[in-house]
Design goal:
2 copies of one chain form a homodimer.
Chain A: H1 3-20, H2 30-37, H3 41-47, H4 51-67, H5 83-99, H6 101-107, H7 113-127, H8 129-132, H9 141-161, H10 168-179
The structure holds a DNA duplex.
Chain lengths: 182, 182
Amino acid sequence: MDRRQQKTRIAIYEALTKLLKKKKFEELTVQDIIDEANIGRSTFYSHFETKDQLLEEMCREMFEHVFSHDLTPESGHDFSGGHKGIADRLTHVLYHIKEHKENISAILGGESEQTFVRYFREFLEDAFDDVLTHMNSGVPDDFRRQFIIGSFVETVKWWIGTGLELVPEEVVMNYIAMLGRI
Amino acid sequence: MDRRQQKTRIAIYEALTKLLKKKKFEELTVQDIIDEANIGRSTFYSHFETKDQLLEEMCREMFEHVFSHDLTPESGHDFSGGHKGIADRLTHVLYHIKEHKENISAILGGESEQTFVRYFREFLEDAFDDVLTHMNSGVPDDFRRQFIIGSFVETVKWWIGTGLELVPEEVVMNYIAMLGRI
DNA sequence: CATCTTATCGAACACGATGTTCGATATTTT
DNA sequence: AAAATATCGAACATCGTGTTCGATAAGATG
């Protein structure tokens, strides 16, 4: 990839990240972004078709960076009771979030949240597919999936809302405490 | 209120409800709405400042209609264990939703969901304030609130997603089954 | 280094949606 | 019947979007 392309792409991402700290995504104009990024109008449009596609791609790339590594169920873990293994992996996810606090909490907060949350759910469904299936608890399968994931997303939103005060372990403990059992 | 005002207001609401079945809210234009409602452009703007305000008010009015009655904790109920009273009241809420299935599922589904969900949460926080406070379960108060309400909203979204197949009692049973205990 | 390639620039443009204005008309209230 | 007010609708200004294109600059290639 041409260096110039990399440069502008980074400039756009950084501009958006910076602007998201002041304004909601929907309130931003393309003009705002290209001014902040200090690039030409047509350049922006040669990289992204629309403003929404920009957010979309930024979220996607962030998820790739943040969660690309080692989130498949690690071998040799305790899945017998289901408890310990899941807790560990959830904790792991939260640590990744904490590391990328800046980018993520910039996106969250507006309604751009939607896009982020969509990717987050997708990721969780994949990453925890194994523990979500094969697990009879007397409720419909799809409901259990949606409930467990939805309430975890809710937990993370709460955590971020508090400014990530608690350590991930505590957060997961709270989550599991509310869920009762997984 | 002048009859003419009532008429146009209803026409607008009905137009929006009808259009929401085909398109997402964000994809609708004011022109679409006033065409469907068969009113003049300036008339629309004499009723609502923006399209968003229309959605806002429609949600508000719907909530007033749907949940205005008898959702305060009824006297003489069993709140000792906490279980039965809450389950009954949640069931009650779901019945109200089912009655207004048409309007609500029209709003849900797009991103207009946001607005609806906001009102729904607000309502739940008020209606269940008593059971949400004074309830020590070893997790932070605000977390417990957000978790219980958030996961109930999630449950309702799932329910609506299935086309309201289950009866409210079953839905609440599932919800409580997942929560373990309240 | 010379040349080819490609990205950026930026002004200009067409387009679509928004929200306002105002005089004419129709309906309701009193 | 008269006064008040809501609707109509065309016209308008404004703003954001996304496109186009020739000129310029920067990078890739040999």
